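Exercise: predict the fold of this chain.
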Amino acid sequence: MSISQKIHMNTRQQTFPVLHLHCAACVKAVEDAIRNLPGVAGVAVNLASASATISYQPERISLPKIRKAVQAKGYDLLTEEKSGSEAAEKIRTSEYRKLKSRTAWAAALSLPVAAASMFFSDVPFAGELMWILATPVVCWVGRDFFLRAGRQLRRRAASMDTLVALSVGVAYLFSVGNVLFPDFWLSRGILPHVYFETASVIVTFVLLGRCMEERAKSNTSSALKKLIGLQPQTVTLACADGRQVQVGVEQVAAGDTVLVKPGERIAVDGAVAEGSSYVDESMLSGEPVPVLKQEHEKVYAGTINQRGSFKLRAEKIGAETLLSHIIRMVQAAQGSKAPVQKFVDRVASVFVPVVIGAALAAFAGWLLFAGVSGVTHGLLAFVTVLIIACPCALGLATPTAIVVGVGKAAEQGILVKDAESLEAARKINAVVLDKTGTVTEGKPTVTAALWAHGDSRSAPALRSLEAQSEHPLAEAVVRYLEGEPLRAVTAFESLTGRGVKGVVNGQTYLVGSARLLAENRITTDEQLAAAAKTFTAQAKTAIWFADEKNALALVAVEDKLKATSCVAVRQLRRSGIAVYMLTGDSAAAAKVVAAAAGVDDFRAEVLPQQKVAFIRQLQREGKIVAMAGDGINDSAALAQADVSIAMGTGSDIAIDVAKMAIVSSDLSKIPVAMQLSRQTVGVIRQNLFWAFFYNLIGIPVAAGLLYPLGGFLLNPMVAGGAMALSSISVVGNSLRLRRKLKRAEN
């Protein structure tokens, strides 16, 4: 069960930075520490983004207690809501600088040790000289490996640090023993070898590998960093007395008037109060064309004002803005786990103990079967097996690809809520589209209003009822009747899929579809009935207004087809995906819209529960169904679909239920999301193949499997380089996904 499925009403889900993660075993240690706490519903730790997504019940457990449990394992969880990410970034930047410095020192000190081993090993006191040069590398530069391995040993745990500490420690101590007590081996006819160069070069290679890995991992989260960088720190407040005051964005309150100058990035969500301008919304929607914003139109934090200046009235600030919501969604998605990761986690949990066992078995095998040279070769095999094994490659294979894929989707205006839905999108073979706001623009306008016998005295009642409804068609009617006064409405009732009902001035009125009038046996005027047929033939929606006995008016509402709907449907069908359209509108209107969009199969006058039933029917037929919608009445169907896609302009409920959200409400983003899913899963499979293949081949070769065939033994220093390259290659392959997706866009 995924984290999102475990969440219930009193459970909060948050993503926090985690410090000191190095491999898959670290991930498991942190997850186990958090998962076993009372009040924690679920946890997913992501190695690539160094974060933990935790679902917990605040009334049962506090964040400080969770952090304390993580710190007890030797890691740290930054739970400060506002400054946690910034603090983590500063700490990681500082640690990266220290890592580079230590790597440079290790390389500088290891080089003469390696040179002495290759060219001057027979020189008197060569062993002592190498001992002196190798000691700072092992005991100073590489001390963290031993400290972390010691802490893990006390907790009966093991990680990549355990493997490095064991291999380096054994090579170093064995060499020290041979320098101090050479007669022990000489008396047995064995030449005492020293492996100071092995110990020091292994430390250098591991540090170099981690240095390159950290740099590459930093690049995988570049999309999230871009989003966070979109948040301005200051704004200009336009005061009532005409003054302009520059303040920090945290000081802005809802209702304040903010002046936005040309070239400035908008700091809060709101509506244009005065002026107009073109706004670049590409960072949120992925659409490069600037959008004209006029009075009363919405603008969003993070977007860039281009030419004109305007004033906006702040509506949502801080964590409530669309940009903040997107950042949280991307963080949660990048921290989530794909289903395939469960298998990898099981392997990672036993990986280090198995490797240690394999190394001991290799040492024992050489002792038993290699005679005099068994100790030397066995020791080398033991060290080499420990070094070449790489749980890091396994731990990074899936999360790095997920981080890149989710980040790239966000840059395209596609918000993916979790890795499971990103992985599932590639399997979609049927797409169900809602009509209003999905296939059409969702900005309906009234084109005509006809009153029975020309009597419009009940217009205030119509406007008052529609003002109570959240349906976009109702909003169009309210705007059209803007001059009519609003009356008090009692006994208001929303009749799902049919319309609304309420009492105004003691009279009961109905507003909705022809079905609603039929159910209530309302008499319709012949002139209005004829007009309704004309409207539906023109793909306009006919809204009826009636009292308890007679139809009083007919309103025609038009919602234009989105320019991208035809392109999206054509792309989906070309890919072999069946496309369906569902609507609560009349069959005649639905037919015209479906034909214009290129959809052959549609259902009209469909209630919300019938949408759910239709999706279930497709699923029974073996189809993997994606549902795209934007309304409250779509939420049940979205929840039923295998992959749910909410349009960004839709209701909060639809967006909360859906597993994906398209900020720009552009249907052509659906094929992009599916392509992104296929490419991301492809990279995950490649990463896992090479990670498993590397370990399955590398460990036996390191143990000496090829020695009987051609006398080949793998040098521990070469093994150290190969181990570092395995992690780097996995991260590099995931970064290739980013470049691949970029080429696909072009």
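Check your answer against the key: Residues 445-558 form a domain with the Calcium-transporting ATPase, cytoplasmic domain N fold (CATH 3.40.1110.10).
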